[in-house]
Amino acid sequence: MNISRRLFWRIYLNGLLLLIVVAAAGTLLAIFVPVESRYAGRAEQLSRFLTLELSRHAPDLEVLQPTLDLLAQEGINSAIYRLDGQPIALAGDIIPRPLGEKEREKIGRWHPLRQKQWVHAIALETTPPAYLLLSSNTPAHGSRFLLTLATVFITIAVVSFPLARALTRPLEQLTQNARQLAMGNLRSRSGIVRNDEVGELARALDDMASQLEERIQRERELFANISHEIRTPLARLRVALELCEEVPGNVPQTMARLKEMEADIRELDHLVSSVLGHTRRGEAPVTIDSFPLRRHFTDLSGFLADVVQRFQRHHPHDSLHFLQPQFLPAASIDPEMMHRVCQNLLDNAVKYRASGTPIRLHAEVQEGYFFLSVCSTGNPVPEADLPHLFRPFFRSHKEHPVTIPGTGLGLALCRRIVEAHGGVIEARRNAGGMEFLVKLPLTGRSPWHATEAQGN
């Protein structure tokens, strides 16, 4: 028998035993309550009445037979016996038997007889001496006790079963839910809705399962994001090595490539150091915003110029139309993180644009916010897929062929970084293509301004 069943039968039998004890105590109390209280002095009244009758008919006690017959019609059994047990007058359905020698000592009181009747004995002052026995057609108490106990037992057994079942069923559900969680089914929930302690326990376990599911999901996203971010500088390093092999004698170009490779290595080192730092401190970097942002006032014009230069180095054969206002303020951002946003958006635009069309990068400042948009022509995402673009691992295949490489993590990473800066990012269809718009608050502007940057 499993644990839940043992608990069920323990609750069931304990409740059953308790109720049986209460029922038995009540039945026994009813048995031992003086029977006189149930007849409210009727025997004494009959005794006085018959005494008057005897005074008129003594010593001829047989003449009392009609009187006893009248009592029998009222449900009272009666009998008059001499001391030797010789009957004088009898009436009723169940005639009381004569008293034994020891029983005659209790004349004037109620006591049980072998026929399981309760009788009241009245001494008659006659010659020769006699006594009158009176009994009611009340059922025998011994049989009544067994019948009552059996009825109570059956009733309690029927009522207690669903009660005990109601107490143990939620525990069985919680046990099954815990086993499902242990087997890795993190979406399993108990489904118990109650306002008692069991319901509180179920809600606590469901909340724990939800938090565990969310934590594991975020950790999976984190590892996927880390893999995505590591692949990007590794890919640049591979391209730089290939370019160095193509022109082995061009020292200036090789030195420039080596500087780019050094920057990529620093980016890798920073990423790995951030993850290790959280691990050593016992923290769980479950979201991208758990990476500490190294925010400082950054010249936005210089930042965008660096974005353009990186794009030209990584995509030398692609055209970028860059537009920005004459003056841009400084903003409090993490340049490395925002470089990842710009790089992911530009790389996506290159991958999914129509062949030979340019990429447009537009920057502006309005009402205390910095806006940056990346536009491409061709292959727009279906309208129904726009709300899902920033979900991890989501890829729209209706317009974009599955042969285009990607993990579906770049845009999710962009959203995490932008939101960590207090901004928002959105995607929308424009005329014949796609536009990704980043909106960042200009927290604490610097008093100086940058110069205009030029693009292709």
Automatic annotation (TrEMBL):
Keyword Kinase (UniProt): yes
UniProt feature coiled coil, ranges: 202-229
Reactions catalysed according to its record: ATP + protein L-histidine = ADP + protein N-phospho-L-histidine
E.C. no: 2.7.13.3
Broad class of where this protein is predominantly found: membrane
Subcellular location: Cell membrane
Superkingdom in the source lineage: Bacteria
GO MF term set: ATP binding; phosphorelay sensor kinase activity
Topology in membrane: Multi-pass membrane protein
InterPro entries the UniProt entry points to: 2C_sensor_his_kinase (IPR050980), HAMP_dom (IPR003660), HATPase_C_sf (IPR036890), HATPase_dom (IPR003594), His_kinase_dom (IPR005467), HisK_dim/P_dom (IPR003661), HisK_dim/P_sf (IPR036097), Sig_transdc_His_kin-like_C (IPR004358)
Top-level enzyme category: transferase
Residue span(s) of domain Histidine kinase: 225-444
PANTHER family for this protein: SENSOR PROTEIN CREC, SENSOR PROTEIN RSTB
The protein, known as: histidine kinase
Organism (species): Desulfurispirillum indicum (strain ATCC BAA-1389 / DSM 22839 / S5)
